[in-house]
Every structure is written in structure tokens, then in C-alpha cells.
Amino acid sequence: MGVQRAELLIANPKGKKDRLVPVGEAARHYTEAYQRLVRPWMV
């Protein structure tokens, strides 16, 4: 079984161009969990 890769969009970091950053499956999983569970609580 191979490792799947995804990309995250980093939108307008410090006034520069948007970027697509390649990430592995574990990073994608934790980023999605953060967005779903932690981020709404912080806002």
C-alpha cells in the first residue's frame, strides 16, 4: 500500500503569492481535524 500525498493551499502568506504545499496523509488528516475541531473554538 503506497502513501498518498495531498496539497494544502497556503493563501497569501505575508502578502506574497498563494502556494500549494505537498503534504503526506498524516499531515492532511491532522490539518483537517484541526480545522474541524479546534479552529471553530478559537474563532
Q: In summary, what is this structure?
A:
The chain is an alpha+beta fold and 43 residues long.
Number of DSSP E strands: 2
User: Which secondary-structure class do the elements indicate?
Assistant: alpha+beta
What can be said about the biggest beta sheet? 2 strands, antiparallel
Strands side by side in the biggest sheet? 1-2
**How many structural domains can be distinguished in the coordinates?**
1
Estimate the strand proportion. Answer: 25-35%
- How many alpha or pi helices? 1
Oligomeric state of this protein:
single chain
- What is the terminal separation in angstroms? 38 Å
Low-pLDDT segments: none
- Range of helix content: 40-55%
Average pLDDT score: 83
Topology:
Blueprint: E1 5-10, E2 19-24, H1 25-42
Antiparallel strand pairs: 1-2
Q: What does this protein structure show overall?
A:
The relative contact order is 0.20. With 43 residues, this protein is α+β, with helices and mostly antiparallel strands. The model has no long low-confidence stretch (mean pLDDT 83). The chain has one domain (5-42). Strand 1 (5-10) and strand 2 form a beta hairpin. The longest helix has 18 residues, at 25-42. Helices cover 42% and strands 28% of the residues. The chain has a two-stranded antiparallel sheet. The chain contains one helix and two strands. The radius of gyration is 13 Å and the shape is flat.
Which keywords apply here?
43 residues; alpha+beta; 1 helix; 42% helix; flat
